[in-house]
Amino acid sequence: MPEPSDSRMEGAAIARPPELRITRVFDAPRQLVFEAWTKAEYLSRWFTPAPLTTHGCQLDFRPGGVFRLTMRTPDGVEFPMDARFTEIIPDERIVFAATVHGDLKILTTVTFAGTHDKTTLTVHQVYSHESDATRGANAGWTLTLNQLAAYLRG
Amino acid sequence: MTADHLTATFAALADPTRRAILTRLARGEANVTELARPFDMSQPAISKHLKVLERAGLISRGREAQSRPCRLSASRLKEATEWMERYRKFWEQSFDRLDDFLVDLKKEKSRAGTK
Q1: Do A149 and B90 touch (CB under 8 A)?
Q2: Most buried among A80, A91, A92, A148, using CB within 10 Å?
Q3: If pLDDT is split at 50, 70 and 90, which confidence band does A13 have?
Q4: Residue A90 — pLDDT band, cuts 50, 70, 90?
Q5: A1 touches chain B (CB under 8 A)
Q6: Which of A58, A48, A52 has its CA nearest to residue B101?
Q7: pTM, entire model
Q8: CA dist B78 to A18, B9, B58, B70, B82, Å?
Q9: Which residues lie across from A19 on neighbouring strands?
Q10: A108, A124 Cβ separation under 8 angstroms
Q11: Which residues does chain B have within 8 Å of residue A131's beta carbon, measured at their own beta carbons?
């Protein structure tokens, strides 16, 4: 039987939308940190956590442009990512959206702040959509992320 | 947790009214009338939200006659939170690599600049 106190504890965390916010301070000027996101060649060198590797990174760095890559595990399992840039403000903000099977959307906002040689990078991800998923629609992208997360944890 | 579960949970949580309903239910069970009271919404509108929450496994509803009290089911919410926390690890590891990459990029830039 669930304890009422458990429900109350969970309740404290409930009133938030499903989102993730991660912040890190880098010892580099803002322009440089921003630049790391602007080229397929650069992203291929850091975006995918080891031991996974990046393959076929396509980057059309402008609003509406594609942001695609495939992450591959050492034993050949692939995790594709397919997104589109929705907003780009040089040295300040990059927003890209991944939509899969027309329902679940993951909106990622990357913000760059700071002066001189320190940059605060924030990645904010919102998981959203209406209706389709509640009808039990396919959620391939979620599955992909789920598998990837499990792999990284393992 | 299956992908469909996750998607349904995220969809349910995406709406502020549904989050408010969950917050209210965290204090204890309530029926539709009680849940509708703080909102400027009809009972059918609230019932629609409750259906979404129920389908997502975030609440369960009693079978007792008309009132059908709703109660919070915390486990699905916990699973969703845990899933997001694992995804956090993805970014933490990317950031570690970015840290190293920026050192390299800085060197490459200064080398190009002094040419």
Answers
A1: yes
A2: A148
A3: very low
A4: very high
A5: no
A6: A48
A7: 0.71
A8: 12, 10, 10, 18, 6
A9: A126
A10: yes
A11: 11
